[in-house]
Amino acid sequence: MVTGSDLVPRLTMQYEPATYRRRIAGHDVIIHCHHYNARLQRTIEGARGIDGKGILVGAAEVVFGDQLARALRPGDDEATRWAVAELLYRHLGFGRIDLSQIGEGIVTADSSHFVEGWLAGLGETTDNVCSFTEGYLQGAVHAVTGAAVRVREVECMARGAERCRFEIDRGERPAVAANHKEPAIASPREPGGPYVKSANVDEQAIIDAVVGMPMIGDDAGLIPAFSVYLASMPADFYNRICIGFVEAMRALGRDKAAIRLLVSDAEHCGMNTFRGIMHSPEWDGLIAPMVRDRADALHAIIAISNALGWGDWHVTAHTPRTLALESRYGYEAVGYREYRGLAAAPQCAMLTGVAAGVMELVYGEGTVEERYGTFSAREERCVSCGEASCNFAVEQVE
């Protein structure tokens, strides 16, 4: 059996400078922090009248079953395949799972990105919170054995358990769906812009430094960096859960509310994630020497977001009260095209919310709660609608 460090090269991150994309085991991955991931889960699972948990579990099953299958090799024996499943989960920053008892239908986890995120950002809960891991395990079983199973969390650290515990039901259930997408949307060949740059901030140096950081799970399977817990989430997972959420809410006549909720989660993400980054040792050592004013901080934040794989966005105009951004290859717009074809309206809820949140963080005053809602953002054009780029306008609320 191949073990340990021998398996790590299969999960080496490849960064594509032309599109600002990270790729691991055949999937574009987006680095987000525990604030965003926990809020997004609460929004989708908390919506009445839809099966939000089913959306999350189903997306994780499909996406990670596919990603894990790409990480496996034809000559792997079953023990190696399970070792890869454990390693992928830990490597991406989701925590640490123990698959040693999976033959008896039991899986345990003694650390969890989602538990950490929920307790840190949302407080105590009476519910189990590891829906993501349930779906991951269903996908892993399918990738390793070809079986379609159901996984249920029966104990959760978010509720005070010593570790999370999952039970596997091998009864009959429908086959696992394929992660079907249309042919990939071509990356832009022509330059965008013109873009506004800072004379003080070396954006490429920031991107190179952040891309060069070893953002992989530690011994506990967590990625503590920039004063937050990060995770490398496949873009397909975010796209599947957000598209599924909006479509489920549309069936109830509540799609506009769904989009507002997704934008709100991202707005909080923009403030909380980058607030942590701006108060981190990494910021002090790498970026703070470049920052002379608030505009410099904004440009540095945009450079960091490009290094995290969000999708090629840049400033086209900027004042302390307004901001215009262009995104040429955002994962939401490209993902919607691949899953659903051309859209009738813009689809980049995450970038819209983050654009407002970043301005609130950089130019707002007071606590995060007091800054929330002091800037508004809208997406004016979108690649999902057939445009050459996505364009965002942010304004201070009067």
Distance between the termini: 64 Å
Integer average pLDDT: 94
- Radius of gyration (CA) equals 20 Å
If strands are numbered along the chain, what order do they take across the biggest sheet?
Answer: 1-2-3-9-8
Please give the share of residues in helix: 40-55%
Low-pLDDT runs of 5+ residues are none
Shape: globular
What is the N-to-C order of secondary-structure elements (H for helix, E for strand)?
EEEHHHEEHHEEHEEHHHHEEHHHEE
Structural class: alpha+beta
Question: Can you count the beta strands?
Answer: 13
Largest sheet: 5 strands, antiparallel
Number of contiguous helices: 13
Proportion of beta-strand residues: 15-25%
Domain 4-vinyl reductase 4VR: 108-170, 328-396
Pfam family, one: V4R
Protein name: 4-vinyl reductase 4VR domain-containing protein
InterPro entries: NO_sig/Golgi_transp_ligand-bd (IPR024096), V4R (IPR004096)
Report on the architecture of this protein.
- The protein has 398 residues and is an alpha+beta fold.
- It is globular.
- Helices cover 43% and strands 19% of the residues.
- It starts with 13 loop residues before the first strand and ends with a strand.
- The model has no long low-confidence stretch (mean pLDDT 94).
- The strands form 3 sheets. It has a 5-stranded antiparallel beta sheet with strand order 1-2-3-9-8. Strands 4-5-7-6 form a 4-stranded antiparallel beta sheet. The protein has a 4-stranded antiparallel beta sheet with strand order 10-11-13-12, with helices on one face.
- α6 (203-212) crosses α10 (294-307), α7 (235-250) packs antiparallel against α8 and α8 (255-278) packs across α12 (349-363).
- The longest helix is centred in the last third of the chain and has 24 residues, at 255-278.
